[in-house]
Amino acid sequence: MTQTTNGTLTTTNTQTIDTTAPKTKKPRIPKLFIDAGSTRTKFYLDKISESYQSVAREFNDSYELPTGYLGVFTKGKKGYAIGDSALSLSGGKLHEGYSDDNKIKLLSIWIIGALTTHPTFLFKVMKKQKTGLIEIDLELAILSLSNHRKKEIEKQFSDIVFTFDEREFKINIANYSFYPEGYGAACAAKKWLKTKKLKDKRFHVLDLGGGTLTLTPYSNLNGVPRGSNQNAVSGAGVMAITEFFGNEATKGDTGGNIYHLSRLKETLEASEIIDNNYSAQIFLGDTEQELGDRLYSGLETWTRQLIGVREILRDIKQITRRGERVFLTGGGFAIETIKYFIQNYLGSSPLIVPLDNPQDVNITGIK
User: Fold this and answer.
1) Cα 121 from Cα 126, distance rounded (Å)
2) Which pLDDT belongs to residue 218?
3) pLDDT on residue 201
4) How high is the pLDDT of residue 20?
5) pLDDT score recorded for residue 15
6) pLDDT at residue 260, as a whole number
7) Regions in the chain scoring below 50 on pLDDT
8) Confidence (pLDDT) at 13
9) 3-class secondary structure for the chain?
10) How remote is the C-alpha of 151 from its chain's centroid?
């Protein structure tokens, strides 16, 4: 309070000003979860789960690639088309995920394939930055049985520079981590047990993928599931089932019909159980043929001729006799007839639990 010359009193308001600089939030680094499988590459990024067929078509620099296609990009002097785009184009060299160690050798291509087939991620970035090289920091989580090949894998994402939709991108891997295949399913299984208020100390995950059948035991005593003694049978996945199905389908008089592997795979994926019978309908021209009995024979042959498959299924019978639960995951269990066959093979035990969305949960279940 102050006094003026005429003797009146006035009040002075004082205000303290905070000169502390406001805290700036660190930008969130997006995290890409990727499972480069033998037949399909699955990924989760920016709250979206997607997948594409594990095929890549490679072109030399003289080939003019179409623009505006998802999964079409250039890297160095070579062009690439991934998944459906690879199958819709002709020419070039076709690489498939299950052959020539391509799951590891082409890991950088599968990563770029995930980014360029994602429906929104790169387009959002392009909208924010109109010109110039776009650099993106990315965390990477790899689901793989090959984490013992760490140096080879690191080399694949040491230099990820590519052009997509006429824009150039550089991906900087801020950090990365490995998860065993089936780990996301184990997290989902643990959550299922908690929801049911069950106190299982141990459980198992049976993962039927495109190329591999894997059985993994998990401890359920700590905060996260801990796996051990993984039993993986390479070459025993859905591709093998498709081949056994094809062998059975071509036995005897087929009326001159030729069953292409791709059509048989589509037929297998769409097959169903109707009144406890196997139904697998294939269209040949204007006619429709039922191959349900051939599919059942193919599944029986798969369990009989592949020793690793027979041993894993035998082990599961012993596991359930001990009172331990087995959770089913992987794209194979998204096919109704395969799930039905294996559950019946194992005696329809209540301890055999199919997980929801088995084709995606290995990615989406990770916490």
Assistant:
1) 9
2) 93
3) 93
4) 60
5) 55
6) 79
7) 2, 4-5, 9, 11, 255
8) 53
9) CEECCCCCEECCCCCCCCCCCCCCCCCCCCEEEEEECCCEEEEEECCEEEEEECEEEEECCCCCCCCCCCCEEEECCEEEEECHHHHHCCCCEEEECCCCCHHHHCHHHHHHHHHHHCCCHHHHHHHHCCCCCEEEEEEEEEECCCHHHHHHHHHHCCCEEEEECCEEEEEEEEEEEEECCCHHHHHHHHHHHHHCCCCCCEEEEEEECCCEEEEEEEECCCCCCEECCCEEEECCCHHHHHHHHHHHHCCCCCCCCCCCHHHHHHHHHHCEEECCEEECEEEECCEEEECHHHHHHHHHHHHHHCHHHHHHHHHHHHHHHCCCEEEEECHHHHCHHHHHHHHHHCCCCCCEEECCCCCCHHHHCCC
10) 22
User: Residue 9: its pLDDT value, please?
Assistant: 47
The Cα–Cα gap between 247 and 268 comes to 13
Query: Given this model, what pLDDT does residue 307 score?
Result: 95
Retrieve residue 294's tokens: 């051939």
């051939």: which residue's tokens? 294
